[in-house]
Write a structure and sequence with these properties.
Belongs to the DeSI family. This is PPPDE domain-containing protein. By secondary structure, this protein is an alpha+beta fold. The protein contains seven helices and five strands. The protein has one domain: Alpha-Beta Complex (endopeptidase fold (from Nostoc punctiforme)), CATH 3.90.1720.30. Helix content is about 40%, strand content about 20%. It has a five-stranded antiparallel β-sheet with strand order 4-3-2-1-5, covered by helices on one side. Helix 3 packs across helix 4. The protein is globular.
């Protein structure tokens, strides 16, 4: 297997690598797969909420955004079981470094006031965290799903309701 320059440096510095994946939850509970073609003119397998999962030796954590930033035990979010678990590869960043980045760089950007179901949601947070962890994007069909439906009338009508529901998980501390 080939090592990138980044991976080579981390190995030479003695850093351990940790598995990273993105977990995808269908917040429509199957409705999108059945009705999206009729309602939106395009078929979607799900309406995605995403969380980034990192497997450290002492703890496996799922990071997600829902009006506040959270670190949860994977699968314990309010969205039930993920429909998909996609491997994203590995990171060399320990948990403390990830939380430092979340607090210093992402916490002020991802707040309840800035939440928008179409333009600033959990998938945008997952994208930023994935870029920090891996320097790789999350799947296009997840990140750009809102762009695909923005021109349709139904999402525009439901936008205020969805913002209240999906942006309302705020808490004092996301841990």
């Amino acid at each position: 297997a080939e090592l990138s320059y980044y991976d080579f440096l981390n190995v030479m510095l003695g850093r351990k690598r940790f598995k990273v994946s993105i977990w995808l939850y269908d917040i429509s509970n199957g409705v999108a797969a059945r009705w999206s073609w009729l309602l939106l003119g395009q078929r979607f397998e799900g309406i995605w909420h995403s969380g980034v999962v990192v497997e450290w030796p002492d703890r496996t954590s799922e990071f997600w955004f829902g009006g506040s930033l959270f670190e949860s035990r994977p699968g314990s979010t309010p969205f039930g079981e993920p429909l998909e678990r996609r491997s994203m590869g590995y990171t060399y960043k320990p948990r403390e470094e990830v939380w430092d980045h979340v607090k210093r760089h992402l916490a002020s950007e991802f707040t309840a006031e800035k939440y928008d179901v179409l333009t600033h949601n959990c998938n945008h947070f997952s994208e930023k965290l994935s870029m920090f962890l891996r320097n790789e994007h999350i799947p296009d069909e997840v990140l750009h799903q809102p762009d695909m439906v923005m021109s349709k009338p139904l999402p525009r009508l439901l936008r205020p309701l969805l913002n209240r529901w999906l942006g309302g998980f705020a808490s004092e501390d996301g841990r």
